[in-house]
Design goal:
The complex is a heterodimer. Chain A is α/β, with parallel strands linked by helices. Among the domains of chain A are: 6-165, Rossmann fold (3-Layer(aba) Sandwich); 181-275, Orthogonal Bundle (Helix Hairpins), CATH 1.10.287; 297-441 and 492-506, no CATH class; 542-593. Chain A is built from 33 helices and 10 strands. Chain A is elongated. Residues 545-576 of chain A have low confidence and may be disordered. Chain B is α+β, with helices and mostly antiparallel strands. Chain B has a 6-stranded antiparallel β-sheet. Helices cover 17% and strands 41% of the residues of chain B. Chain B has a single domain (2-75), classed as Roll (SH3 type barrels). In chain B, strand 3 (38-44) and strand 4 form a beta hairpin. Chain B starts with a strand and ends with a strand. Chain B has 2 helices and 6 strands. Classes of the chains: A alpha/beta, B alpha+beta.
C-alpha cells in the first residue's frame, strides 16, 4: 500500500444514483451507522485500487450545500472539517442543469472534485450529447461517464481518483464562477478583511467564506465569530456589503448569487450539451399518467399498500412459524439436556424465549424493507407521497409519513424504521412519536379477549372503535406536537418526482440487508438484556421462600391418587380425572401465587394505587407491567394470575369466566383496552425509537408521554362512563 | 402576471418573480425556480393538491399554496 489514509467523499443530488455507485465501488465492504448527533445515515466503505486503499464516505444526498437541512449541514461539515482527499460528485447526466448546481457549490468550496456523469445511457437515449472534455475544461475538473445500474465506468472513475490524488490530473484547476462586477467587488472587500489573518486562509477558501457571508449563512457566521482576532471586523464588513448589494439589486444578495450560478450553468451547457432528437415517447411519463391518475391513482395506491401488507405479514407468517418452531425446539432441547434449576430456567425462559421473541420479527422486517426498497428505487414512493400529501398535510405531516403510519398497524418496530424515508428530521421524529398509536397486531389478542368477554356480539365494533381512538389520538398528538415541540417554518414540498426506473436486485438486497442487520444487532442486544431482567423479576424470589408450600399439596394429591389406584375402585377412571383436574388447579394456583409473590408481582401490587382511579385491580396492574415487554403478554399474564393457566389465550373460556367473576365490568374492560392501546410502546419499539432518533431522550419521552396520555384518556373513559351510568 | 397556482394542467409559463421569504424562497431557487425559467404544469394530484411541474427537464411537486407564491408570465401552448 502506497498511502493508507485516502478518503473519498461521494456527493450528489438525491436520485442521481449515488447509492448504486457507492455499492459498485465498495461492494459488501461497507459499514452503516449514523452521523454523530443526528439521525442521518452514514455509510463508509473501502476499496483497494492499484495498491491504494481508499476509504469511501457516502455523504447524504443533497441538492445544495446551503446548510438549511440536516443532510446539508452534515455533508458540508464533513467537506469543510474533514477535508476529504477527493470529492466525487455524482450527477444525473440526463438532468444536468439542476444537478450541476451542487457542483458549482463544490467548486466554490475549493475541494478536489471529480464530476461523474451517471446514467449516461439514459441521457444518450434521450438524445443528450454531452461534450465531457469541454465540460471538464470549463469547470476545471475531470469528468467521467458511468452507468451505475450496469456497473460501467467504475474502474475508470477509480483511475481518475488516483490521478487527482497523485496530482496528475491535468484538467484540474481552480476556477471562479464570476458573479458580475457589483458582487465581485463586495467579495473582494470581505476577502481583504479576512486576509488580515493569514491563518484563516490556510484552513478555508477565503472566497467561499466571503460568498457564504454575503448569503447570510448562519453556520459560517458562527464560525467566523470564533476567529478571535478579526471575527467581528469580518462580520461588520459582510453586513455593510450585504446592505449595499440589497440596495443595488433591490433583492437579497443570496437570490442574486443563486441566479448567477444558474446563469453560469446555462452558459456552460450551451457549449457542451446538444439535444439532438427529442425523444418520441417518454415511457416514464406514460406510466405516471396511470399511476397518479385522478380516478385510478388511489385504487392503485391502495392495491400496492395492500400487497405490501400481504407480503409482509401473510407471506412473512410462514418463516415466522419456522422461527417460532425452531426457537421452541431449541428451548426444548436445552431443557432436556440440562438438569432442572435456575440456570436452565434462565436459558430457556429468559434468553431463548426472549431473543426468540425478537428473531420472530426478522421475516417481517426483511420483507417490509424489500417492499419499501422496491417502492423507493422504482420511484413509486415519491408518487405515493404525492397522492397522499393532501391528506397528511391536514395533520401537519408530509405525504411520505403515510407509509410508516400505515405499517404501524402491523408492527410498530419496522414501521418506525420505515420513517427513514422522510428527509426532514422534524417530520421523521413526529412520525415516529405518533406511530405507536397505530394499534399493532400484538395488541389485538388483548382486545379480542376483553371485547369477546364483555361485549359479546358487538365485540367487532368495540375493537374497531379502539383502532379509531388510536387514529384520532395520533391526529390530535400530531397537531399538538407540531405546535409545541416542532414549531417553526415547514420546509416547502419541493419534492422531486424521479423518472420510473427498473431497480437492480443487488441494490434492493443490499438495502434490505442493511436494515435487517441494524435490527438484529441493536434490538438483539437490548431485547436480550430486557428479557433477562423481566425473567429475573418474575422468577425471584424462588418458590421455597413462599409462605405456603404448594409442593406438599402436590405430593398429597399424588399420594391420594396412588391410594385410589391401589384400592382398585370401580370409579377409578372418574376419580382420577377429577384428581387430575384438582392437580391442574393446584399447579395453576401455584403459578399464580409464584407470579404474585415475585418482584414483578410485588411491583404490580405496589403501583396498583396509581391504577386504582382507572378501576384496575392488582392483577391487571401486573399484566400492564409485563405488557411492556410485548403487549400480547398481557393476555398470558392475566391467564396466570386468574389461575386459568399460563397457556391461556384470547379464546380461553376459563379465563373469560374468571375475568367476569373478578368484578370487571364492560366499562372497566373498555378502559383497559384503551390503556393497552396507548401506554408505553413495547420494549422492541422503544429500542427502535432510541435507535432511529439516535437519542435515549426521545425514547424516554415516548414512554413518558404515552403513559401520561394513556392514564388521562383511560381516566376520562372510566369516569365519563360512570357518570353516564355505564 | 398570474400565480402558478392558477395554471391548469398542460399550461406553461415563464417565472417572473418568486415571492415569499428566507428559507422557502431560497429552497425554491436552488431547485431551479429562478426568474426566466420555463415551467409546465404536468398535472394535479388526485385530490387537486399538490401539483406536478416540469422544470429544467425534471419533474417536481409543489403544494398549491406554495405555487401561489410564484408569479408567472403565461406562454401560449405550442
Amino acid at each position: 500500500m502506497k498511502q493508507e489514509n485516502i478518503t473519498i467523499a461521494l456527493t450528489g443530488n438525491p436520485n442521481s444514483g449515488k447509492t448504486t455507485m457507492f455499492n459498485n465501488l465498495t461492494g459488501t465492504r461497507q459499514h452503516v451507522g449514523n452521523w454523530p448527533g443526528v439521525t442521518v445515515e452514514k455509510k463508509v466503505g473501502t476499496v483497494v485500487h492499484n495498491g491504494y486503499r481508499l476509504r469511501v464516505v457516502d455523504l447524504p444526498g443533497t441538492y445544495s450545500l446551503t446548510a438549511y437541512s440536516i443532510e446539508e449541514i452534515v455533508a458540508r461539515r464533513f467537506l469543510v472539517d474533514e477535508r476529504p482527499d477527493v470529492v466525487v460528485d455524482i450527477v444525473d447526466a440526463s438532468n444536468l442543469e439542476r444537478n450541476l448546481y451542487l457542483a458549482t457549490q463544490l467548486i466554490e468550496l475549493g475541494v478536489k472534485l471529480i464530476l461523474v456523469l451517471n446514467m449516461a445511457d439514459v441521457a444518450q437515449s434521450r438524445g443528450h450529447q454531452i461534450d465531457a472534455a469541454s465540460l471538464g475544461k470549463l469547470l476545471g475538473v475531470p469528468v467521467v461517464f458511468t452507468v451505475g445500474s450496469k456497473n460501467v465506468g467504475t474502474k475508470d472513475l477509480l483511475d481518475r481518483v488516483l490521478e487527482v490524488v497523485e496530482d496528475r490530473a491535468t484538467v484540474s484547476r481552480h476556477i471562479h464562477i464570476s458573479y458580475g462586477h457589483e458582487l465581485e467587488k463586495e467579495i473582494k472587500n470581505i476577502q481583504d478583511v479576512i486576509w488580515q489573518d493569514s491563518s484563516i486562509g490556510e484552513r478555508f477558501s477565503t472566497r467561499w467564506l466571503a460568498v457564504k457571508l454575503l448569503e447570510n449563512d448562519t453556520a459560517v457566521q458562527d464560525r467566523v465569530k470564533s476567529f478571535a482576532t478579526i471575527g467581528e471586523q469580518i462580520l461588520a464588513q459582510a453586513e455593510a456589503s450585504r446592505e449595499r448589494l440589497t440596495e443595488f439589486y433591490q433583492d437579497d444578495p443570496e437570490m442574486i448569487l443563486t441566479d448567477q450560478r444558474y446563469g453560469f450553468i446555462s452558459g456552460a451547457l450551451k457549449e457542451v450539451l446538444k439535444v439532438t432528437a427529442k425523444s418520441k415517447i417518454d415511457l416514464s411519463r406514460q406510466v405516471d399518467l396511470i399511476l397518479t391518475n385522478r380516478i385510478l391513482g388511489f385504487p392503485i395506491f391502495i392495491f400496492f399498500i395492500w400487497a405490501m401488507f400481504q407480503v409482509t405479514f401473510t407471506l412473512g407468517a410462514y418463516p415466522m412459524e419456522w422461527i417460532d418452531a425452531g426457537v421452541g425446539w431449541l428451548g426444548g432441547l436445552t431443557a432436556s439436556l440440562m438438569p432442572p434449576g435456575l440456570l436452565r430456567d434462565l436459558l430457556v425462559n429468559g434468553v431463548i424465549a426472549g431473543v426468540g421473541s425478537v428473531a420472530i420479527f426478522l421475516p417481517n422486517i426483511m420483507l417490509l424493507f424489500f417492499c419499501i426498497a422496491l417502492f423507493e428505487d422504482t420511484g413509486y414512493l415519491a408518487r405515493a407521497a404525492f397522492i397522499m400529501d393532501r391528506v397528511m398535510h391536514l395533520i401537519g405531516l408530509h405525504g411520505k409519513s403515510f407509509i410508516p403510519l400505515l405499517m404501524g398497524f402491523g408492527c410498530n418496530a419496522p414501521a418506525i424504521m420505515a420513517a427513514r424515508t422522510l428527509e426532514s428530521e422534524r417530520d421523521r421524529i413526529l412520525t415516529i412519536l405518533i406511530n405507536p398509536l397505530m394499534s399493532c397486531s400484538a395488541r389485538l389478542p388483548v382486545y379480542v379477549l376483553l371485547a369477546g368477554t364483555f361485549f359479546g356480539a358487538s365485540a367487532g365494533n368495540v375493537i374497531f372503535s379502539i383502532y379509531g381512538l388510536g387514529i384520532a389520538l395520533a391526529i390530535a398528538m400530531g397537531k399538538l406536537f407540531r405546535v409545541t415541540l416542532f414549531r417553526g417554518e415547514t420546509a416547502p414540498f419541493v419534492m422531486e418526482l424521479p423518472p420510473y426506473r427498473v431497480p437492480t436486485l443487488k441494490s434492493l438486497l443490499i438495502h434490505m440487508w442493511d436494515r435487517s442487520k441494524i435490527f438484529l444487532r441493536k434490538m438483539g442486544g437490548v431485547i436480550l438484556v430486557g428479557s433477562v431482567v423481566i425473567w429475573v423479576l418474575g422468577a425471584f424470589p424462588r418458590p421455597s421462600e413462599f409462605p405456603r408450600d404448594y409442593g406438599v399439596d402436590k405430593d398429597a394429591v399424588s399420594n391420594t391418587q396412588a391410594k385410589e389406584v391401589t384400592l382398585g375402585s370401580l370409579e377409578q377412571g372418574d376419580k382420577s380425572q377429577e384428581l387430575t383436574a384438582a392437580h391442574k388447579g393446584n399447579v395453576q394456583a401455584e403459578a399464580s401465587a409464584r407470579l404474585s409473590q415475585s418482584y414483578l408481582g410485588r411491583l404490580g401490587q405496589a403501583i396498583q394505587p396509581v391504577f386504582d382511579p382507572l378501576g384496575f385491580d392488582w392483577r391487571t396492574s401486573v399484566a400492564v407491567v409485563t405488557g411492556f415487554v410485548a403487549k400480547e403478554i398481557v393476555v398470558s399474564t392475566l391467564g396466570v394470575l386468574h389461575a386459568a393457566g399460563a397457556d391461556a389465550n384470547e379464546e380461553s373460556e376459563a379465563l373469560r369466566r374468571a375475568l367476569r367473576a373478578s368484578g370487571m365490568t364492560p366499562l372497566g374492560a373498555y378502559t383497559l383496552m384503551a390503556f393497552v392501546l396507548i401506554y408505553v410502546p413495547c420494549l422492541a419499539t422503544v429500542a427502535v425509537i432510541s435507535r432511529e432518533t439516535n437519542s435515549w431522550k426521545w425514547a424516554a419521552f415516548s414512554i413518558a408521554y404515552s403513559l401520561a396520555l394513556a392514564w388521562v384518556v383511560s381516566f376520562l373513559i372510566y369516569h365519563g362512563g360512570k357518570l353516564l351510568g355505564l | 402576471m398570474t400565480p402558478l397556482s392558477e395554471f391548469k394542467e398542460g399550461e406553461r409559463g415563464v417565472i417572473a418573480k418568486v415571492n415569499g421569504r428566507g428559507r422557502f424562497r431560497k429552497r425554491l431557487q436552488e431547485m431551479g425556480f429562478i426568474k426566466g425559467a420555463e415551467v409546465l404544469v404536468e398535472k394535479y394530484a388526485p385530490l387537486r393538491d399538490p401539483m406536478e411541474l416540469v422544470l429544467k427537464g425534471y419533474h417536481v411537486s409543489l403544494r398549491v399554496e406554495e405555487a401561489a407564491q410564484i408569479m408567472m408570465e403565461k406562454l401560449e401552448n405550442r
